[in-house]
Amino acid sequence: MGKWNNIAGFKSYLFTALLALFLLGPLVMTNNVLADDCISYYCTYTDMQYGEVVKSGEDCVDLCTDDFQVNLISIGLACYLYPATGSKYLLGTAYTADGWGGCSVERRGRSITAKISLIQQDTGQVVILNCKPCDNCCGPDV
After folding, report:
1. Whole-angstrom Cα distance, residue 75 to residue 55?
2. List of residues 6+ apart from 73 with CB closer than 8 A
3. Whose CA is closest to 90, among 107, 108, 77, 67?
4. What is the pLDDT of residues 88-104, one digit of tens each?
5. If you ran DSSP here, which 8-state letter would residue 6 be given?
6. 9 contact partners, CB below 8 Å, separation of at least 6
7. Model pTM greater than 0.70?
8. How many whole angstroms separate alpha carbon 10 and alpha carbon 58?
């Protein structure tokens, strides 16, 4: 009970616990996000500009772990993601053929929903991908 007898001991313990959570939390959470190194997803997407649908179609993405981050990869898209503490979201940045933006991935069971908001051109462009896992459907090109 010695370390709890004074405020300084408690603050030291709390600081150490928070530091460990901050440094190790993303690693633990990233490992819980994916059991494999990469999972392929078949997606339908909607491309909107200022709330109006301008294009829709199909795509394939890979969600991969890489050291301390998770990457969402497709042709013309790369999201660099990190777990949002206490939620089912992965948040980060996206690099697309149209420039940089924000990226979020929500896990819904085995399916995912990815949202990419392009900010570089100030076009109000948002791409939403609704994806279901598939067996290596992305092929070697991604």
Report:
1. 17
2. 61, 62, 63, 64, 79, 142
3. 107
4. 899 999 998 878 899 99
5. S
6. 2, 3
7. no
8. 54
